[in-house]
């Protein structure tokens, strides 16, 4: 691991001195899709993965025209890709001329670790260029010394090429394009890859369990067509930022998520087809700041272990099938922790813990469209009765696997609602026991 980190550090340092400039901070949000539509079928690669680009004819540019042989081969790859471009609204490809590919717009050079005196193309940044091409096969995979490839918001189509021949690649961003097919599993053997962004494409099927066996820091898979259960091994990954929102994932949230307790900072399960009981193990995510599993089919009461999420700033469980009492220990996170937004609307909760009433008044807690007597904008009695009489299979969990700050309040009120509660409960919460 130490040697890997040293190699990665060496690769990162290549770009500190480059003209690329500072990257923006990582953003967990699912972003805004550009609505590109469907893409053309990819054409076959003009290159064999195991060979260098074919030499140019004697009448064309020669290796001696370039600063080194690596830049000569990069030139051949770029020119071949340039011929496949079908739209270029900013005229970027017009700058890809001459014998100095390090000066081409979107390309940046540095010396790879194995050739410290031989600068070549080490970084490609096409973000926002709006380029159209039927495939990036034969392009990305042929730039052998590439350390990162960012191509957000273009019209690249087809599958992701086999990138196992790129030993230095540590960031891959192909978000907001037209890529399709199965999950690009060929990127997984890349030992240095820590950032993988596939957002807003047309990938479908399953996310392989092996994804979570590698040392990723960032995995952005939202807004695709993934439609299989989440791998049970999800918690094996040391990932800090995980977005799986707006797909068709099914099944429960794996209890193994607790194994990511010391690394997972933000996780988005929003708007899938997840089901099953809300896992007690989520309460072990000790450094998480955002947990969003809204608009699924998750059921059961909220485990009291959620009261351990002292660093949590946003908790969204809206639009599920949750029921019971909103635990007082969870609402206390607004006072004892960092909680600023608790969204539980569109469920079947029947009562609030003592500390929750003030959060409704301050609009930190949203419990609209539930079954809580006396509160406005609740479900109809008939709708609540129909749901609450259905068999329930999720057992309540009142265990708290952490040491919580001492509360100034007494124990939460009973979960049994009174026969009649007026709207005044919003402004004058029920007295403490």
TrEMBL record:
SUPFAM superfamilies attached to this UniProt entry: L domain-like
Coiled-coil portions: none
Keywords associated with the record: Repeat, Secreted, Signal
Gene3D superfamilies: Ribonuclease Inhibitor
Alphabetized InterPro entries for the sequence: Leu-rich_rpt (IPR001611), LRR_dom_sf (IPR032675), LRR_extensin-like_regulator (IPR051582)
Domain of life: Eukaryota
Signal sequence annotation: 1-21
Cross-referenced Pfam families: LRR_1 (PF00560)
Main location: secreted
Cellular component aspect of the GO annotation: extracellular region
Region annotation Disordered: where it falls in the sequence: 39-66
UniProt-annotated location(s): Secreted
Listed name of the protein: Leucine-rich repeat-containing N-terminal plant-type domain-containing protein
Organism in which the protein naturally occurs: Ensete ventricosum
Highest classification ranks of the organism: Eukaryota, Viridiplantae, Streptophyta, Embryophyta, Tracheophyta
């Amino acid at each position: 691991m130490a040697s890997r980190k040293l190699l990665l550090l060496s690769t990162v340092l290549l770009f500190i001195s480059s003209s690329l400039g500072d990257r923006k901070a990582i953003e967990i949000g699912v972003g805004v899709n550009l609505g590109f539509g469907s893409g053309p079928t990819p054409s076959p690669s003009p290159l064999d993965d195991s060979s260098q680009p074919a030499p140019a004819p004697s009448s064309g540019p020669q290796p001696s025209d370039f600063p080194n042989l690596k830049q000569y081969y990069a030139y051949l790859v770029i020119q071949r890709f340039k011929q496949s471009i079908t739209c270029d609204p900013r005229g970027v490809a017009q700058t890809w001329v001459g014998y100095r590919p390090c000066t081409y717009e979107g390309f940046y050079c540095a010396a790879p670790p194995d050739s410290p005196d031989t600068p070549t193309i080490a970084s490609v940044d096409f973000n926002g260029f709006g380029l159209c091409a039927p495939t990036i096969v034969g392009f990305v995979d042929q730039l052998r010394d590439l350390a990162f490839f960012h191509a957000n918001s273009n019209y690249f189509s087809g599958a992701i090429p086999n990138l196992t021949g790129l030993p230095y690649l540590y960031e891959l961003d192909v978000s907001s394009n037209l890529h399709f097919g199965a999950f690009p599993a060929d990127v997984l053997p890349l030992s240095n890859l820590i950032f993988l962004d596939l957002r807003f494409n047309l990938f479908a099927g399953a996310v392989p369990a092996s994804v979570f066996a590698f040392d990723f820091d960032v995995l952005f898979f939202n807004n695709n067509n993934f439609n299989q259960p989440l791998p049970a091994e999800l918690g094996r990954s040391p990932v800090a930022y995980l977005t799986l929102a707006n797909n068709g994932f099914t099944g429960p949230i794996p209890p193994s998520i607790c194994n990511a307790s010391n690394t997972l900072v933000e996780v988005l399960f929003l708007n899938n087809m997840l089901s099953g009981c809300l896992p007690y193990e989520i309460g072990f995510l000790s450094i998480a700041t955002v947990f969003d599993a809204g608009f699924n089919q998750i059921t059961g009461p909220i485990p009291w272990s959620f009261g351990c999420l002292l660093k949590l700033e946003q908790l969204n469980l809206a639009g599920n099938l949750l029921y019971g009492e909103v635990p007082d220990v969870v609402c206390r996170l607004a006072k004892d922790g960092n909680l600023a937004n608790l969204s539980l609307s569109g469920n079947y909760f029947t009562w609030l813990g003592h500390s929750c009433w003030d959060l409704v008044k301050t609009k930190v807690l949203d419990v609209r469209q539930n079954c809580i007597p006396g509160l406005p904008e609740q479900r109809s009695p008939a709708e609540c009765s129909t749901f609450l009489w259905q068999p329930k299979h999720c057992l309540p969990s009142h265990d708290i696997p952490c040491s919580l700050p001492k509360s100034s309040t007494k124990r939460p009120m009973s979960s049994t609602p009174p026969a009649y509660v007026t709207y005044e409960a919003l402004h004058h919460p029920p007295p403490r026991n």
